[in-house]
Amino acid sequence: MKAREEEKKAERMAVVADAETSAAERRVRTTARHLVGIQTQACAAIGATEESAAVAMAVGGSGQSEEDDPYAIEQDFVDLDGIDEIPLVGTDVDLSEDYVAGLNMMAQRCHPETKLGYVDTIESGHILMVTKPASVRKVLTSSVQHFLGGLRPPSAAFFGHKVLFILEGKEWLDLRNVLKKSFQKHNVGLMSEDMAWAAEGFDAILNKYAQSGEDLDFMRAVGAFHLNAIAKVSFDYDIGAIEGFEDGEHPIEESFEYLLEELPRRSYAPDWETQNDFESDNEDNRNMAKYSWQARDVIRTVIRKRLAEIEAGATPRGDLLQKMIDVYTEDYPEARGDEEMLTAELGDNLVEIMFAGYNTAVPTSAHALFLLANYPEYAQRVKEEVDTVLQGRRPTMDDIKSLKFCERVYMEALRLFPPASLIARQTTKDVELDGMIIPRATRVWLPACAIHRDADSWEDPMVFNPDRFASKIVRGSFIPFSDGPRNCAGRNFAMYEGITALATVFAKYDVSVNESFDHSTVFTGFGLRPFDFNTARVCMRLNVHPRQDL
């Protein structure tokens, strides 16, 4: 141990003593020397001397053959220890008590210039933490490989092994192309009609609680609105989440809530069996199978019904499901009419799409309403914009570009409470960050919770100020939808749903924070959710009132 410490000290002193070498050159040379022996693709040293470029190139291998998957990457850990510009910022222990607080603390410990650091973990070795916007952008736009760690086994057990969130390599690319084509705006022309239908049901809930004066859990109310909207838009189905709101959790809501509670327990458990064994016959696995089937059963039924309609010669509705079927069967004709194949390849993805919005758009809308309840001056501006633009009707997709302030409120809620507090990647090619070559297969953490509140990128970062989005923001400083080829395919829908929720509330109502609501947040492993300390549960307890100015 002592010898290793002396070696580290000597390496650092040698780098510091190299006074004639520029900072960029020194970083490249230090990184290259340190990473010699790691097999990775040949890398180009940007802005480096001929000598350091040669050293950096020596790190690389001969590259992949054309027959290999272009996205397949090595699984070797990359050792980041001993590089001055990438200091050790924390370990697993720092995340054990409060995950988000731990991420924020580690982000503050990153190098003041490079804004890089590394986390030493038991399971995944050294993980590079990246917080500078320019570097964040480079990682996200150059790398498509997820780094899911312990999230992968329970996610696969619940959603299946063919969902976009889990797939990697060519399988991911093929399915991504199917979903990207299906999500294009001209393929979802029925969205405005379907969203307005769901908003009517949401308004009915608001009206009931406005009349009764009872506090309303906006997490559940917005969640019911989301499930009805996404089901209607995606596959023309009334899922009944709003109609059954007073009866308790909807079956899909119950399944998603189960997953959000079970996921962190099984993903971060200290024993291998809890994390990875999803096949043994035990109560945990039986529950996982039960709730997984409960969420998928509706989708299987809908796909079976749609295929029967097509077989009977009916003209199918041009919704998301049909677009997915059309695009997928165009590339894979053998899947036409195959219920099992379409369910595995597309149906499970519909469940995951429903869950993705439930886990991200729902808490964001709830937080936006919470923020407006605390800032009545901004709530007044929302009401004025909604009255002027909509004049009593529901917003269409075309109205979104006119509801500028509503959009800024939603974006600011995403900034302050990013549902994806941490984005994880594994570099799929060598990437240059601040003069250093970060080799292929490096595991990377991008802590959105810290990046979104970095004072170097945001003026008064802790203050709720929607108007900050009136100006162009620096790319890489705001990543609620990620960036690059693996960004959120449902971004347009999420924004439309969130703005519709705000417009539906403030067209007729005001909101205030319930006096007994003690707001905090909890991180589930999948996302950040509002939490009430007084009731010790995930919720957003607000009061809704009829607008006095109407």
Automatic annotation (TrEMBL):
Pfam family, one: p450
InterPro entries the record matches: Cyt_P450, Cyt_P450_CS, Cyt_P450_E_grp-I, Cyt_P450_sf, Cytochrome_P450_Monoox
Keywords on record: Heme, Iron, Metal-binding, Monooxygenase, Oxidoreductase
Stated family: Belongs to the cytochrome P450 family.
Protein name, entry field: 4-cineole 2-exo-monooxygenase) (1
Organism in which the protein naturally occurs: Durusdinium trenchii
Lineage: Eukaryota, Sar, Alveolata, Dinophyceae, Suessiales
